[in-house]
Amino acid sequence: MDRSEIEAKLVDLLVDELGLERDNITMDARFEEDLDVDSLGVVELLMALEDNFDVKIPDEEAEKITTVGEAADLVSQKLNA
Amino acid sequence: MERRRVVVTGVGTVNPLAHNLTDTWDALLEGRSGVAPVTLFDASRLNTRFAAEVKDFDPDVYLPRKESRRMDRSTLLFWGATSQAMADAGLAFEDGDPAAERVGVVCGTGIGGIGTTQTQIEILNERGPDRISPLAIPMIMSNQAAGAISIGFHLAGPSTCTVTACAASANAIGDAAEIIRRGVADLMVGGGMEASVTEFAMGGFSSMKALSARNDDPEAASRPFDKDRDGFVLGEGAGSLILEEYEHARARGASVYAELVGYGMSADAYHITLPRPGGGGAARAMQGALADAGVAPDAVGYINAHGTSTPANDVTETMAIKTVFGRAAYDIPVSSTKSMTGHMLGGGGAVEALISLQVLNEGILPPTINYATPDPECDLDYVPNEPRKADVDYVLSNSFGFGGHNVSLLFKSI
């Protein structure tokens, strides 16, 4: 899966699973400050990433994610590991 | 010091008959049943395969999906009802508004987010504990709706929850009024809801032999006080009232539906699900409401019965009414609107309180539908099958819950 496919699927997840507005989602958008995703929402997102990309994301790596782009980076790194 | 008076200045409901009070009232006067085969899930494994569901409920009408997806259906139903009630009362507060510190909420429910409980336990069993949603607990907890309303409508006064099964939302209305009487708040949301049309809940009620099993004729299944009743029909829905201190309502020119003058409570102290034979507990709740208001029994012009359509409830409630009113019981019209709405459990008391307000303001009594064969043990005037005109000054609304909780609310026209 290439980077643009990962990003597209990630955006779909944010819209479908978290109910975010598609227009607000950019790779630079910060989950908490820009997208109003709280700590419970971040946990939901991580579970959705694990389910939909079939990867494992340990808590200590998850805690470092603050933007949509960083989430895409992490998935990309896991898929190519 | 004279007691602070509490009036109703806003109403809202989402129930099996309609999505607001006006349309609900029209349905009740037409004698329409809200009962039909279950559509919310595949009910084929159940002994009872029908219920009174809220039809075509669309949370998007009330709030964005980003928020609605974090709420159990029960909370969403109450949110819908409360949105209507707040708008009806002309109330809106901003976050941090000092006036909203004297506005609160009491919300009743029987079993809270039981739909979420079932789906999350399925995930637990199929996929393991680390796949349980982080929203599971906030969606399951019985106080979710009270919390969500105080957050969403920026109400910073008392916020709490009554969990007394089928008496829950009647308790919520009474407790909300008590908070106003105490002087702690001027405005309270009072009401409650249930959304337990799930395989888990219906299976549980079925095992108790509490549900009607009239699968060949669902619309005729809820038949309170009729000799051939065979259990209650599970319903779902929400009712929400804005309760307001009388002078506060006058000062802001709010229109008033009625006054809540009496709140009675008692316990059967007998059995976890069966009513005490003879109905002594239920009678004391009604007597408590009358005493609270300082009103004699003969002032009551109509009783909205708990009337669940179970063999036990309808007999004991009839006996309780006779205990309270004596010979005069035979002259007081009593109807069970559960014959049309089904039994909304934690939502029933609030929706029936709303119906009581309509009776006071419209001068019409809603019927008990499906009444065909008199039961010798249920021999009062149940307003069978057809609505009836009646000028009524006081209405009593009964709600009794598993656990032996008995609540009676007395409303007065104003």
Quick description:
The complex is a heterodimer of chains A (81) and B (414). Chain A is mainly α.
Your description of this structure?
Chain A has 81 residues and is mainly alpha-helical. Chain A is globular, with a radius of gyration of 11 Å. The model of chain A has no long low-confidence stretch (mean pLDDT 94). Chain A has helices spanning 3-16, 31-35, 39-53, 59-62, 68-79. The longest helix of chain A has 15 residues, at 39-53. In chain A, helix 1 (3-16) packs across helix 5. Chain A has one domain: ACP-like (Non-ribosomal Peptide Synthetase Peptidyl Carrier Protein, Chain A). Chain B starts with 5 loop residues before the first strand and ends with a strand. In chain B, 33% of the residues lie in helices and 19% in strands. Chain B contains 13 helices and 14 strands. With 414 residues, chain B is of the alpha/beta class. The model of chain B has no long low-confidence stretch (mean pLDDT 98). In chain B, the strands form three sheets. Chain B has a ten-stranded mixed sheet, with helices on both faces. Chain B has helices spanning 21-30, 65-68, 73-88, 114-127, 136-140, 144-152, 168-182, 199-207, 246-251, 280-293, 311-325, 338-341, 348-362, and strands at residues 6-14, 36-37, 50-51, 103-109, 159-162, 187-194, 237-245, 258-267, 300-304, 334-335, 364-365, 388-389, 394-401, 405-412. At the A-B interface, helix 3 of A face helix 2 of B.
Please state the structural category of chain B: alpha/beta
Count of extended strands of chain A: 0
Q: Just give the CATH class of chain B.
A: Alpha Beta
Per CATH, the class of chain A reads: Mainly Alpha
Total separate domains of chain A: 1
* CATH architectural label of chain A: Orthogonal Bundle
Q: Strand share of the residues of chain A?
A: under 5%
What overall form of chain B do the CA principal axes indicate?
A: globular
Assign the CATH superfamily of chain B: Thiolase/Chalcone synthase
Number of helices of chain B: 13
Tell me about the biggest sheet of chain A? none
Percent strand of chain B? 15-25%
If interface size is counted as residues with C-beta under 8 Å from the partner's C-beta, which chains form the largest one?
A-B, 9 and 12 residues
What is the second-level CATH architecture of chain B? 3-Layer(aba) Sandwich
CATH topology of chain A: Non-ribosomal Peptide Synthetase Peptidyl Carrier Protein, Chain A
Uncertain stretches of 5 or more adjacent residues of chain A: none
Report the C-alpha radius of gyration of chain A, rounded: 11 Å
